[in-house]
Amino acid sequence: MHNDDPEQVLAQLRDLHARYTENQLWSWQAELERQRIEVDLALARDHIARTQPLLHAMRRLLIIVQDSKFWKVRNRWFQIKKRLKPDSVGPQPYWVPDVEDTNDHWLRELPYERWMLAHRFRASDRRRLLDAIGIMPARPTFSVIMPVYETPENYLREAIESVLIQVYPDWELCIADDASKQPHVRRVLEEYASRDARVKLFFRTENGHVSATSNDALALATGTFVALLDHDDVLSPDALFENAMLVNRQPDVDVIYSDEDKIDAVGRRSAPYFKPDWAPDSLLSRNYVSHLGVYRRSLIQEVGGFRRGFEGSQDYDLLLRVTERTDRIAHIPRVLYHWRLHSGSTAAVRDQKGYALNAARLALEEAIERRGEPGRVVHDADRSGLYTVRYDIRRPGKVSIIVPTRDHGTDVDLCLSSLFGRSTYQDIEVILIDNGSREPESLRIFEQWQKREAGRVKVVPYDVPFNFSAINNFGAKVSTGTYLLFLNNDTEITTPDWIEAMVEQAQRPSIGAVGAKLLYPDNTVQHAGVIVGLGGVAGHSHKHFPAHATGYFYTLQTVNNFSAVTAACAMIRRDVFDEVGGFDESIAIAFNDVDLCLRILAAGYRNIYLPHVVLYHHESKSRGYENTPEKQARFIGEQQVMHQRWHTDTRPDPYYNINLTLDAENYEIGI
């Protein structure tokens, strides 16, 4: 309101000056604090660098100690003690490392050892879980099926004992031996069957390989659920309890899987795999579900059990067929399975069993045919066990490539030169949205492209204050394509069939947004899928990793489901884009692509990242950085929108395990 009183005006000016001075002081203090933090970080990095050799030396010492005669005698004593008193509540079985000694401070510096220390199974846990079992509304029986063939005696005993010590008592262990010639196999199996009536045995008279033997074990099963256990691996003591708890929470669940790690001959655990929740497109790249797989028995019977001809990947084939019949699939984010590392195991060497790789490819080829999405399965020759499904394009259509820009003619020239010079997909139109360009050279370049690619490049003026969402929505309205491809003006195409690869996925009824791998000019990763929750809202998977790095359990080099992908390069079918209402124009700058992808997820579609579509990207070149009070205030406001709308600061990302950090983009273990 206008005020003519000079005294009041003067008072208001004094108040404004005081606020300005206070804000300046706050800004100065914040800058000092930032500088102090940078100094502390530098000191911390230096400390880590200096102590790392000591940590490695201590770890080597531990390995030497565990290989010593004393340690082997100790392990043997715990083995004997457990056999003498199998129901006693005592120390862990001898194959589980003893990390009770809290004086081993150096051990805490190794991420997985620190994680195990915090999550170890203790005697008090057994008592607590037994109390919980007593009040469970449902007590499902789990049939643990285990095909056996020439298993070394120590590994066979450890596998069986890992079932015997389960806290949850309602199980049966169904073992089928595939005509082993080693005499210890029958002797050991009959010994355990005589000790516990829940151990059931079947001895084949001729060798039939793992699928036939698994079916023989399955024929012994009477439980509601079937759990798959390899003959040389071990379960954690709470494995079946955790599955029973999940069944009580989700009584209609059909498939359950959990996290896993590796275990060596002396019990050292390593390489934990903290998996995403159900991600069906990730499964088509590799069997990320693997262990511990638990299935409703009636569903396994419905699909015909294990199939001959898929030996080595029989579990993968079973999983593909079962999950075509149900979407009631649950993941337990706990390490419940320890996969044996030894010279003959696939855990030790991924390409140990070549026939398994061929069986996996066959299983995938048959799966996409059954699903009515034919194509070809490409095996990664450099990385065994990884596959890429290249679907036949059955719904071809025009692709509208929407490129917003304000000047930056040189960037646009590079982008369009690479696009038209390298792309093999011809049915395209480029909608260049000119958001108020002023530079004569930029305007000349735009006009030149419109003439050079007449009919395929259209320059459309849209001179409004910068709003990424509004600009792209406008581009979608003036475009005519079946597929919308949102592309930043500072990108450079490197993959000739990039549009075909994206259309292959975007045509599928189940798919929403399709993203690519974006690289910085120094060949490090800028974008490989978006993880919701990183930094409080969202962050880029594997940012700054080398372009050819495998990433966390091959995530960087395989097709994967993500909650979101960046709109710097994203394809969406027009009908999906229209269904969810396009970009939210109230989110002008940051996180609008994440918001769009989350609305696509909420509408029942899946978003997907393609590692074989590669572009270079100069991030934020067009709009600059959040380096003014106005930009920072807007950024904070858009963060709050994401918190309120999607709870990105509290709700876990289903495609990112809760045991992994939210403080970095490198898939470190969260301690």
Structural descriptors:
Spore Coat Polysaccharide Biosynthesis Protein SpsA, Chain A; 10-stranded mixed β-sheet; single chain; 671 residues; 9-stranded mixed β-sheet; alpha/beta
Integer count of domains:
3
From the alpha carbons, calculate the radius of gyration and give it in angstroms: 29 Å
* CATH architectural grouping of the largest domain: Alpha-Beta Complex
Q: Would you give the CATH topology of the largest domain? A: Spore Coat Polysaccharide Biosynthesis Protein SpsA, Chain A
Alpha-beta classification: alpha/beta
- What global shape is seen? globular
**Major sheet, described briefly?**
10 strands, mixed
What's the mean pLDDT score?
88
Q: Can you give the helix content as a percent range? A: 25-40%
Residue stretches low in confidence (pLDDT < 50, at least 5 long) are 86-109, 348-352
> Helix count, per DSSP?
19
Number of separate strands: 23
Tell me, what is the CATH class of the largest domain?
Alpha Beta
The separation of the N and C termini measures 55 Å
Strand content: 15-25%
What is the structure about, briefly put?
The chain has 671 residues and is α/β, with parallel strands linked by helices.
Folded structure, characterized:
It is built from 19 helices and 23 strands. Helices cover 39% and strands 19% of the residues. It is of the alpha/beta class and 671 residues long. The two termini are 55 Å apart. The longest helix is centred in the N-terminal third of the chain and has 61 residues, at 6-66. The model is unreliable at 86-109 and 348-352 (pLDDT under 50). The strands form 4 sheets. Strands 12, 13, 14, 15, 16, 17, 18, 21, 22 and 23 form a 10-stranded mixed β-sheet that branches. Strands 1, 2, 3, 4, 5, 6, 7, 8 and 9 form a 9-stranded mixed β-sheet that branches. It has a two-stranded antiparallel ribbon with strand order 10-11. It has 3 domains: 39-120, no CATH class; 125-355, Spore Coat Polysaccharide Biosynthesis Protein SpsA, Chain A (Alpha-Beta Complex); 399-646, Spore Coat Polysaccharide Biosynthesis Protein SpsA, Chain A (Alpha-Beta Complex).
